[in-house]
Amino acid sequence: MSRGTWIFPPEPSLRLIVDTIEYCLKHAPRFNPISVAGAHFHDAGATVVQDLAYTLADGITYVQCCIDRGLKVDEFAPLISFFFYTHNDFFEEVAKYRAGRRLWARLMKERFGARDPRAQMFRFGVVCGGSTLTAQQPQNNIVRVAYQALASVLGGVQSMFTAAWDEPFAIPTEQSAELALRTQQVLAYETGVASVADPLGGSYYVEALTDRVEREARAIIDRIEKLGGMVPCIQSGLIQKEIAAEAYRYQKRVESGEQIVIGVNRFARPEPERRLELYQADTAAADRQRESLARVRATRDSQRVTTALAALREAARGNENLMPPISEAVKAYASVGEICGVLRREFGTFKEPVGL
């Protein structure tokens, strides 16, 4: 919905996800097969409330599809985690994560009947940085990332990635990447904030804000459910339009000065021309990859590949789990392109509706 990185329509894409979860339950029970990613909703322009609501609505879809497959919620739900971007509004981000924890636990317990406390857990990771970082006065990004990391910890995060300050205009240097890591380590080892569970719990403001985020996110989820769930909302372009509209409103606020961005529309100053050693792609890399692929195709067992891809095609036409035939195709040295080509021919591709 935010990145445009799909291949297949929503239904076969969901089938592949449920196939993965089912396969991992049987063959890799300690592996986490899915992280429900709301990160790109927020970075594309969604508000905190939309970010949480769309992500949990996605989670509801995955859980329901697994139950429809016959999987037991207390067995697969503990393997589900979530992934978000943390932006700059400190207390809103804390409230988002606190509200998500409460809302997901209620949904799992009351709607899906989960009894195992682990199946009700809202485990999440975050990125601190993303679209909030600016090319203007870029060292301000060090401060932004540090505050975002603090908000994430106070919100109860389980894992974190901190972006480097120079990411708006370059691939990070070793020094800037190390500083991003040290930002986490100072929080973890020097501040003591990671030693307390829910340290802002009981604050009138934080509790009231958490209640509001939860209430408004639940209202969006209920509206999505009345429209048939996330799949029809994706197919109609509704969610994409709502995110685009909010991104436009935000940009208008920045351009008018209503939304303050330090170094961009407030406290800006002329900056010297930045001399950068930008990353240069190796122009020969594509040629080397093509040569490598040609060698594999020349030395592999072509009959085995043909048989494996035919088995995958037949499985895709039915309703069996696709992970075993995909694994067999990989073991036969079928390429990713060949495997996806088979599935494209059976599933088709997805083109989202265009609308403003």
Can you walk me through this structure?
β3 (124-128), α6 (140-155) and β4 (159-162) form a beta-alpha-beta unit. The protein has a 4-stranded parallel sheet with strand order 1-2-3-4. It has 2 domains: 32-256, TIM Barrel; 285-347, no CATH class. 58% of the residues lie in helices and 6% in strands. The protein is built from 14 helices and 4 strands. The model has no long low-confidence stretch (mean pLDDT 95). It has 356 residues and is mainly α. The radius of gyration is 23 Å and the shape is globular. The two termini are 14 Å apart. The protein has helices spanning 10-27, 39-44, 48-69, 73-76, 90-111, 140-155, 174-191, 204-226, 230-235, 238-256, 285-299, 302-317, 323-331, 336-347; strands spanning 34-37, 80-86, 124-128, 159-162.
Tell me the radius of gyration: 23 Å
The stretches of 5 or more residues where confidence is low (pLDDT under 50) are none
CATH architecture of the largest domain: Alpha-Beta Barrel
Please trace the helix and strand order, writing H or E for each element. HEHHHEHEHEHHHHHHHH
CATH topology of the largest domain: TIM Barrel
**What is the residue-averaged pLDDT?**
95
Per DSSP, the total helix count is 14
How many strands, which pairing sense, and closed or not: the largest β-sheet? 4 strands, parallel
Question: What's the CATH first level of the largest domain?
Answer: Alpha Beta
Overall outline: globular
Portion in strands: 5-15%
CATH superfamily of the largest domain, please? Methylmalonyl-CoA mutase
Helix content, binned percent:
55-70%
Structural class: mainly alpha
Strand order of the largest sheet: 1-2-3-4
Number of strand elements: 4
- What is the domain tally? 2
Through-space gap between termini:
14 Å
